[in-house]
Structure formats: structure tokens, C-alpha cells
Amino acid sequence: MAEPRCDEGKVQDVREVALSELLAKRAAELSLEKKCEDVVILDVRKVSSVTDFFVIATADSERKAKAAYEHIVDELKHDDERPLHIEGSDSLHWVLLDYFDVVVHIFMPDSRAFYDLESLWGDAPKQCLKSTGEGVVNDG
């Protein structure tokens, strides 16, 4: 539950954040750094026992997909996070990075439309992110 907190006369909502949620947000931000688009975080904790979060992103070229997945893996290594498994790095149409509690999906546009994970997991709360010149913001 959120508890109000006073900070210089302002009241802010404070809630406990799971480490997996922080990892999902970090992976999403890293994908945006490499110009991925339509970045979405799905909170599947209440609808799946397989993982906590999906991060879904679109790369409009194989080169961009490769750059994004390598950037995510390399940067998360600095935080002592290593994927248990990587799939799709040979074809780059759907790259899956399995961090156990967070699964990152980087799709080419046609593959993302075909598999349509957002609809498949439509009951999961969704957070859309976009990059601005000043950082990453929640886009809905």
C-alpha cells in the first residue's frame, strides 16, 4: 500500500518496488537508448507464474535489434545481472533475454505484430515508455 510522505511541504505516494520491476524499467530504458520503439512493460505477476515482467520493444532493423540486445546484456552485467538464456540472436527477428523475473523481447515489426504478446497477455497491467530529449517518460 502507498503511504503518504511529506517532502518539503509536498505529499508524495511511496510504495515498495520489487527488484524485478526495477530491472524491467532498466532494461526498457536501455532499449530506448538504442532507439527501440513502442517499448512496453507488462506486469504479469498476477497472470503468470513463469516471470514477473515482460519488456517488449521493436527494432526496425536487424542491426538495431543486435545493438539493443547487446547493449542491454552488457549494461546489466555492470549491475551483476546476467541472462539465464538468450534466444534469437542468430535471426534477430525476435530476440529473447531471460533474466528469470524479467523477460525482454526485442522484435522486428512484422514478428511483433504476428506474435502480439500485448494481446496474449492483455489482462496484465501495461506501462508504455518513450524517450524524450531529457530522458525516459511513461507514455500512458
Could you give the topology of this structure?
Layout: E1 3-7, E2 10-14, H1 19-33, E3 37-43, E4 53-58, H2 62-77, E5 85-87, E6 94-98, E7 102-107, H3 109-115, H4 117-120, E8 126-132, E9 135-138
Parallel strand pairs: 4-7
Antiparallel strand pairs: 1-2, 3-4, 3-8, 5-6, 6-7, 8-9
Helix pairs in contact: 1-2
Report on this model:
The strands form two sheets. Strands 5-6-7-4-3-8-9 form a seven-stranded mixed sheet. Strands 1-2 form a two-stranded antiparallel sheet. The longest helix has 16 residues, at 62-77. Helix 1 packs across helix 2. The protein has a single domain, classed as Beta Polymerase, domain 2 (2-Layer Sandwich), CATH 3.30.460.10. The chain starts with a strand and ends with a strand. Helices cover 30% and strands 34% of the residues. The chain is globular and about 35 Å long. The chain is α+β, with helices and mostly antiparallel strands.
